[in-house]
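User: What would this chain look like folded?
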Amino acid sequence: MKSTFADRNFAREFIKNSFEVLPDKPWAKFPDYEVFRHRENSKWFALMMNISSSKLGIGGDEKIDVLNVKSNPIFINSLIDNKKILPPYHMKGDWVTIVLNNTVQKSLVEELIEMSFELTRSKRIKKKDI
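Assistant: Here's the prediction, encoded as structure tokens.
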């Protein structure tokens, strides 16, 4: 049976298939860190990392995959549950950290990635508000 929860591979494939973007690995010291950028402006819309759960304040010391995405500030407080969606790790501003350990619904991860992509696009090519 196919899982309805997201992991690192799901997020990477969704980004590749939806936006035709491949990850950039800018830090040799951190080979599991992947940056996803807009092709037209090189702005980040997602950062995937593999970090210790203790650094996130969720207990334990196991390495877990996470994805940082930009979010609409209106939604941030309702998204953060401090278990699956956390305040942003190593980011400032309106970002959240999604834990990619098969606990967050794929549909929510897709929505959050899409939102981040739209929020970080060049202003001249953003979709008009409906």
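Residues 5-121 form a domain with the Aspartate Aminotransferase, domain 1 fold (CATH 3.90.1150.30). If you want, I can go into more detail on any region.
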